[in-house]
TrEMBL record:
Keywords: ATP-binding, Cell membrane, Ion transport, Iron, Iron transport, Membrane, Nucleotide-binding, Transport. GO terms for biological process: iron ion transport. PANTHER family: IRON(3+)-HYDROXAMATE IMPORT ATP-BINDING PROTEIN FHUC (PTHR42771:SF2). GO terms for cellular component: plasma membrane. This is Iron complex transport system ATP-binding protein. The keyword Oxidoreductase does not apply. The keyword Nucleotidyltransferase does not apply.
Length: 276
């Protein structure tokens, strides 16, 4: 079995990447190298091109120019099955059929490993069981997805991507619509998977403080371009947040995590008005 603890992570990068919808450019001449075995988080204001970039990295959107390189090879030339064996994607709002159980969903992650002459195998069963265990879903395996809480359901989708046994995970806003407790639950799970086996993770997140806490590598985007990239402590400054989000803030050190903590300034302070 190609275990979760296998060493080595495939490389993924974008070179001169331009992405467009109906000739409307969303990402323009973007260059990005994703550090292997690390957690990269992409941040930026709405409609800046974060999710579009992730779709292109997953080969769901063909570039207008430039290329996405998987292990140095243009990803559009890599067979679809091979891409699915190397790279797993969790989109923003995944959907499943009515009446599907947790185990049924997770088992879908084994599709890239199926062949017409070799269907379900012991290796497939082991991969599903391991993914369920890693996501703390073993006792919920036979439960309908519709009966789960938001956090449990999101863990089930992550388990499906784990069952693919890929070394690259792309997660597009995995905490959307979750309350704070479930957000932390999902992010801790993703972080633990990275620490456990060095899996490369790329996430799009809206919450800048969560991004700072969980990212090894932070990418800040604005208007389809990368404004800054690097360790959160190097990237997140008051000037950067003002430029990317148009928001005046104070940046301090998180007393728990030691990472940057972004505190929005009240409107009166932002306007330079001092309270009596």
């Amino acid at each position: 079995m190609d275990s979760y603890g296998s060493t080595g992570a495939p490389s993924l990068e974008a070179r001169g990447l331009t992405l467009a919808y109906d000739h409307r450019v969303v990402v323009d001449d973007l260059h990005l190298v994703l550090p292997g075995g690390r957690v990269t988080v992409v941040v930026g204001a709405n409609a800046c091109g974060k999710s579009t970039l992730l779709r292109a990295l997953a080969r769901l959107l063909a570039p207008s120019s430039g290329a996405v390189l998987l292990d140095g090879r243009d990803i559009t030339t890599v067979p679809t099955r091979r891409v699915a064996q190397v790279l797993g994607l969790l989109p923003q709002s995944p959907t499943a059929s009515d009446g599907m159980t947790v185990r049924d969903l997770v088992a879908r992650g084994r599709s890239p490993h199926q062949r017409w002459w070799q269907q379900w195998s012991r290796q497939d069963e082991e991969a599903v069981d391991e993914a369920l265990a890693l996501c703390d879903l073993t006792l919920l395996a036979d439960r309908d997805l519709d009966a789960l809480s938001g956090g449990q359901r999101q863990r089930a989708w992550i388990a499906m991507t784990l069952a693919q046994e890929t070394r690259l995970l792309l997660l597009d806003e995995p905490t959307t619509y979750l309350d704070m407790a479930h957000q932390v639950d999902v992010l801790e799970l993703v972080s633990s998977l990275n620490r456990r086996d060095g899996r490369t993770v790329v996430m799009v997140l809206h919450d800048l403080n969560q991004a700072c806490r969980y990212a090894d590598h932070l990418v800040a985007m604005k208007d389809g371009r990368i404004v800054a990239a690097g360790a959160p402590s190097e990237v997140v400054t008051e000037d950067l947040v003002r430029e990317v989000f148009g928001l005046p803030v104070h940046v301090m050190t998180d007393p728990v995590a030691g990472t940057p903590l972004v505190v929005p300034l009240p409107s009166r302070a932002a306007a330079g008005v001092v309270a009596p």
